[in-house]
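Q: I have 143 residues here and want to know how they pack in 3D. Can you give me a structure?
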Amino acid sequence: MPIKPKRENGPGKRPISITAVVDCVGALATGSVHGNLYLYDTNKAGGSTGLGTEELRTRVRRGDQLLWSVLALECEAYAAIDGILIDPSVCEPVRKVYPGTDVAYWIGTVKADGVQDVPYQIKFRLGSRDEPITSTLSPSLVG
């Protein structure tokens, strides 16, 4: 049986999922996600580093689709991404909602090849707090 060649940036390629796990109780108590945020992505095999830290370095290439989502460490806590602050010449994430639900995620496509180190920040809505809490240490996209 012949082996099918891999598609590098074709339409069948899965997005790189970036998941933020937030300790909402800790973040609300301190007013910061510093020490209460754990970032993971699905591209460890592709070269991502810093998994489980606030300074995740996601390895990307032009054309890669990125999908950000959030999970609350405590099952009864509310957590949502309110915005992603990143250089728009590299990626412009937009908020989407899964059909038939109120579950939101953010998605964007990497516009440039060979990005050196593009930091970004994530703004979170946690609990019943009115103002979002923005990450202080920056995860980044690297080429």
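Q: Anything worth noting?
A: The radius of gyration is 16 Å. The mean pLDDT is 91.
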